[in-house]
Write a structure and sequence with these properties.
The chain is an alpha/beta fold. About 65% of the residues lie in helices and about 15% in strands. The strands form two sheets. The chain has a three-stranded mixed sheet with strand order 1-2-3, covered by helices on one side. It has a three-stranded mixed sheet with strand order 4-5-6, covered by helices on one side. Strand 2, helix 8 (about 255-275) and strand 3 (about 275-285) form a beta-alpha-beta unit. The longest helix has about 30 residues, at about 1-30.
Length: about 375
Amino acid sequence: MEREKIIVKTSIKGIVVNLILVTFKAIVGIIANSVMIVLDALNNLSDALSSIITIIGVKLAGKMPDKKHPFGHGRIEYFSSMIIGVIVLLAGLTAFKESVQKIINPEETNYTVASLVIIAVAVVVKYVFGMYVKKTGKKINSQSLVASGTDALFDSILSLSTLIAAIISIIWNINLEGILGIAIAIIIVKSSVEILKETIDNMIGTRTDSEITKKIKETINSFEEVQGTYDLILHNYGPDEMIGSVHIQVADEMTAKDIHVLTKTIESKVFIEHGIILTIGIYACNTSDEKFAKVKQDLDEVIKKYNSILQLHGFYVDTRFNNIMFDLIIDFNEKKPKDIRDSVIKEMKDKYPGYEYSVIIDNDYSDL
C-alpha cells in the first residue's frame, strides 16, 4: 500500500507539472510560430497522459487476488508500462514527421525574450522532475515511473534543443528547427523501443537479479542442516510480488518431522527477510557412506571433463532399485545437452555397470 501511495503521489505531481508546461509552451509556440515548441507542448501532454495511465495501472495491479487470478494482478503494471512506451513511440514518430515538413516548408519564427525564458525554465523543470521520477521508480521498483522519468528527461533535451534553435535563429537568422527536431525524434523513438523491450522481457520472464538470488541462498544456507541450495526459481507476478521454489540438500538420516520443521522455518525466514514465498523441495544425501562417497567422487572426476557442465547436484544412490540419481546444469550455449548427459551416463556405467541412472538436465535459472 505504501508503494502504491508513492506511485500515485508522484504521478499526480507529474500531471500537474506537465499541464502547467503544456499551457505555457502552447501559448509561446503559437505566438512564436515554432513547430518545435508546439511539439514540445504535445510531448508534455502525452506525459500527463502517461501519469494517468500509471495511476490506473497501479490501482488495478493492487487489487486483491481472486478465484480467477490467485496470484494477484501485479502484472498489470507491465501493461501500463507498455502503453507508455507506445505513447512515447507515437510522440517520437509525430515529431519526426513534423520536423521533416518543417525542413521542406520552413516558416519564419518570431521568438521573444519572454518565450526564451519560458523554454529555459521548462528545460530545468523537466530535467529535475524527470530525475526525481526516475529515481523514485527505481527505489520502489516501478517500471512505469522509470519509463515516465526517462520520457521526461528526453523532453528536457527536446526543450533544450528548441532553446538552442531559437537562439541561433535570433543571432544568425538560421532556422534549425527541422534538423534538430529530427535528431530529437530519433532519440525519442530509440527511448520508446528500449522501454517496450524491457517491458516485454519482464512479461516473457528474465533471469532474476543475481543480488536477490545470492541473498536468498545466503539466508537458506545459514541453517546448519542445509548442505546446499539448488534450483532456485522465482516467478514474477508483478514488480512487488515474487513466488518461487528451491531445493535444499540434507542428510538422509533426517526424519520427516525434522525436515518439516526445517523447511517451514526457512520459508518463514525468507519471507520475513526478502518478502518472497518459497516452496522447498528436498535432496537427500547419502554420501556419508564410504561406498557412495566413492561413487560421488568418481562422478565428480567425470564431470570435470565437460566444460559445459556448470553444476552437479541432487546426487543419491537408491539401493532398493540400484539407481544412481543426480541433476546436471548444462550451459545454455551447449547445443547438444542430451549428448553430454548420455556421455556422462556411459562413463559411469563403465565404472559401475550394476546401476541404472536417472539424470535430469536442469536449466541455470539463477546465478550459481
